[in-house]
């Protein structure tokens, strides 16, 4: 594993016998494991000065090292303090969401209180005209 841009140089050398030689800057912060033909390299406790382009390269006997595309690693902030800050931000976000939900419920309750909701759900009375057809009312109309 090589650093190629900011501070060029080797980070970790792993032989075909699985012997490793880390650079002094990464002595206690780098580890590797082999899974068949694949080597997994893990960098721990990253610091801002570890930001660089990292390239995995294979040494081929009798051939110069070819350039390869790598992985850009950008380290920002301080590990533990930053994680606590993110945790606080997520709680702030949850609290804000709860307050907004409560205000929205209060607004809906106020609107429903102001509007007479019962009249929208009651059955409307049909338009009925009632006419008195008793004998006394019929007699009055006959006389006229």
UniProtKB/TrEMBL annotation:
GO cellular component, one term: membrane
Sequence intervals crossing the membrane: 93-115
SUPFAM superfamilies reported in the protein's UniProt record: Immunoglobulin (SSF48726)
Taxonomic source organism: Pomatostomus ruficeps
Top-rank lineage group of the source organism: Eukaryota
Keywords for this protein: Membrane, Transmembrane, Transmembrane helix
Molecular function per GO: signaling receptor activity
This protein's name: CD7 protein
Signal peptide: none
GO aspect biological process, one term: adaptive immune response
């Amino acid at each position: 594993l090589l650093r190629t841009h900011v501070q060029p140089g080797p980070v970790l050398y792993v032989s075909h016998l699985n012997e490793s030689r880390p650079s002094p800057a990464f002595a206690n912060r780098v580890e590797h494991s082999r899974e068949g033909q694949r080597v997994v390299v893990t960098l721990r406790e990253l610091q801002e000065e570890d930001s660089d382009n990292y390239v995995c390269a294979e040494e081929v006997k009798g051939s110069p090292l070819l350039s390869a595309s790598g992985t850009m690693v950008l380290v920002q902030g301080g590990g533990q303090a930053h994680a606590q800050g993110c945790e606080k931000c997520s709680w702030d976000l949850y609290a804000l969401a709860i307050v907004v939900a409560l205000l929205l419920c209060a607004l809906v309750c106020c609107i429903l209180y102001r509007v007479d909701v019962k009249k929208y759900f009651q059955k409307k009375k049909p338009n009925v005209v009632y006419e008195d057809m008793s004998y006394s009312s019929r007699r009055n109309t006959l006389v006229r």
